[in-house]
């Protein structure tokens, strides 16, 4: 009965993770994977079915519910690089769900000890060092959807599990040490195992099947990375209703709080401009939002892959200058030493948020021992570059939003790094404002996703507490390769969504009958320095001198952030397209996409190129 | 040709306002309409035709607001010199755009 059932219901409204065949391959892979790593959730489940096989029964229950008078409220999940949390609109307010150990914030890791994976939701580490023994995989959010040429993946090689790169643009090899054997896995699988734990936890708390979720994601995630998150959700039996950039989730919570104020004491209903700075272990994001009447209008978004993990790595190298040499060979002893240093350094950084200096004393077990005092200035100096980057993100975001510091009503600093004094000070000084005190910095993002979950599920509140809306903006530009090797954006960054924009291109050669449309996402001027999303060819152009055919490329992003690229060809003097219009849902690329663009170039040179049409 | 029926829709009408409205009225109208017509607020109805309609409505509202909320663009729009095609790319800096548009008005 409840055999393997594909989650992507292709006939339904927005089966976002396009192509059930993709999921299919993932599933078969998981199946191969399943026997040794069978999950031990049986105590929660009615039947002892492997947690990955999403039972068809639970799915139908979800379907029926959503069409009944009481629609299923989607839960909000904040998947952090270091910690995760789950929240839901409970009918009158947002409530964070607790696991069996009464935690609202749960560590993000999966340990493969004894060949049975268990994650930070259900599992209690016997000791902090257990997480660093090689058996646990963490920082999934930093690794997911990245290829092995990515500097972020290279930086992850210092983590106490195996991250191996071949530096050719394919996915990195990741493995956990189980009984002295490196067993391979992928960030998607690790995330899926973790999400299953979260789902089971939420189901046992709410006593109903959970299917729909709203997840928060970093601003800098490419659309390719978003597909990996969706895939992990699908593997865990979850349907993604929305993926929300983290600071926009915080912005929605802020919008709700402002509405509440008006409701309570007739506060002013005027528009409020807020800047949100969100820095966790893996990513740093900034947003500027204009809020009025429960509507949060995102004016600008900026983000970068910098976070607490970088502070930590810089400090470890500072404390142990020979770090890279010492740990280049990855024996069990090295991993153990690395783990000891990691714990000690993390602890020190944490204390430095509240104390001027801290004593470190750690025996690395390999003959070397670090015993010294570290003060706050030292920490700030070692991480100077990161702080500078944070500064530039805030300034850029204000600039993009066309907002002056004086226009800001409120400024909030949230996320795992929000107690670092230097960060608070730099945001305060750029924004010339004290920080907003009305929200818990660790719970703001997940609370926002829960609000979005309720709104997107069509829940209404008699007191108007859910008369909310986020008007999202595109975090990255989307365009095509044209004019030689340039990236020509069609939907620029920070365009309000849903959006539909088009641009006209033409051929570069006489009698050119084919053109290649290569779609990228990003900000770099050179096409190949952006994220490749996909490519397709338009064929059958009637022979004409170069520059004559009008090739119209249109990009459409709907409210659920699905991107479609449409391309059509017209000849002057005619309104009719000469060939059928192509409509392609992006991204279409899979792993190793770095290769594809190069391979295309080798195969076609500039024969199928395009140029923009100059406005008359 | 500069002034004629160059726009199929009147931005003020889209937002339900008259030409004399203040920036605050503009903002309020936009947010109210967004709350009503943004696809996110309509998607739960499950009616895909309605969602598609909502998307179109919201885009029209968004376009009207993005022009009228920018004092310079609103001025150009009011004198009939605003050309949405030039704006669509969102690339050119404003002065440039203004110069082009002004010369268009003169010649028209």
Tell me what you see in this structure.
The complex is a heterodimer of chains A (616) and B (108). Chain A has 616 residues and is an alpha+beta fold. Chain A has 15 helices and 28 strands. In chain A, helix 12 runs parallel beside helix 13. Chain A is globular, with a radius of gyration of 25 Å. The N terminus of chain A is likely disordered. Chain B is 66% helix and 0% strand. Chain B has 7 helices and no strands. Chain B is elongated. The termini of chain B are close together. At the A-B interface, strand 19 and strand 22 of A face helix 2, helix 3, helix 4 and helix 6 of B.
Portion of residues within helices of chain A: 25-40%
- Tell me the span between the first and last alpha carbons of chain B: 6 Å
Percent in strands of chain A: 25-35%
Net shape of chain B = elongated
Task: Enumerate how many helices of chain B there are, as a single number.
Answer: 7
Biggest interface pair, counts: A-B, 34 and 28 residues
Please give the oligomerization state of what you see: heterodimer
Give the helix/strand class of chain B: mainly alpha
β content of chain B, as a range?
A: under 5%
| Rounded Rg of chain A | 25 Å
Mean of residue pLDDT of chain B? 74
